[in-house]
Design goal:
The protein is an alpha/beta fold. The chain has helices at about 50-55, 55-65, 70-80, 145-155, 170-180, 205-210; strands at about 1-5, 10-15, 20, 40-45, 65-70, 85, 90-95, 100-105, 110-115, 115-120, 125-130, 135, 160, 185-190, 215, 225. It has a single domain (about 1-225), classed as Metallo-beta-lactamase, Chain A (4-Layer Sandwich), CATH 3.60.15.10. The chain starts with a strand and ends with a strand. Bound molecules: nickel (II) ion and manganese (II) ion.
């Protein structure tokens, strides 16, 4: 399995299938790809904020691939002419051997469009299971105690955790999340896109190593193979 960071919270996870998560590309100067160039078989969107829904609708239409999202966000996406599959917490959607399970996130999810903010349902994270490997994409989230249960239930190999603070956990709280989740590897996300979420995830390394967790810091466009 190959995990490529496309900047912010956007990842392309490639194994027997290609899973694209939170493809915020247009408007992110650090994104290493263009919405016209991304290849995927399915798209998962964690919540309705623009830096996560991003180019999902455009790419879904261009590639004719489905978007998986919480029910209300899926309804919104469908109203824009893309194909979305609505689901909800603890539910699993299986797509050609890839399993996407929705787990909670502690955040908000409004969809802002011109002067209106639509309800995007509740924010989520995803457990992605493919080729015998498990990845947890936490979405945007604060620290919450049920991360311990997510760790016990799904035993993720890799946890993609937001560390930028202000809207999500910072490096200190993401370190606690990692201890609860007990993945083999943590890849930080949702930092340094803009000044308010500047962070140095290197601060997490010593604490994680003591727990036997590898910290893998990627640059946008870089990949981690497991
Ligand atoms: Ni958000
Ligand atoms: Mn965000």
């Amino acid at each position: 399995m190959k995990i490529t960071w496309l900047g912010h919270s956007a990842f392309l996870i490639e194994g027997s299938k290609k899973v694209l998560i939170d493809p915020f590309i247009t408007g992110n100067d650090k994104a290493p790809v263009k919405p016209d160039d991304v290849d995927c078989d399915i798209i998962a969107v964690t919540h309705g904020h623009g830096d996560h829904l991003g180019d999902a609708i455009f790419i879904s239409k261009r590639k004719n691939v489905p978007i998986v999202a919480i029910y209300e966000l899926a309804e919104y996406i469908n109203s824009k002419g893309a194909t979305a599959i609505g689901m909800n917490f603890s539910g699993t959607y299986e797509h050609e051997g890839v399993k996407l399970t929705m787990v909670p996130a502690l955040h908000s999810s409004g969809i802002t469009e011109a002067e209106f903010t639509h309800s995007g349902g509740l924010p989520a994270g995803f457990i992605i299971e493919m080729d015998g490997k498990t990845v947890y994409h936490a979405g945007d989230t604060g620290l919450f105690g049920d991360m311990k249960i997510i760790g016990e239930l799904y035993t993720p190999d890799v946890a993609l955790l937001p560390v930028g603070g202000l809207f999500t956990m910072d490096t200190r709280l993401a370190t606690i999340a990692a201890k609860w989740l007990k993945p083999k590897v943590v890849i930080p996300m949702h930092y340094n896109t803009w000044p308010p979420i500047e962070a140095d995830p290197e601060e997490m390394r010593d604490d994680l190593e003591r727990e036997g967790i590898d910290l893998v810091i990627l640059e946008p466009g870089q990949s981690y193979e497991l």
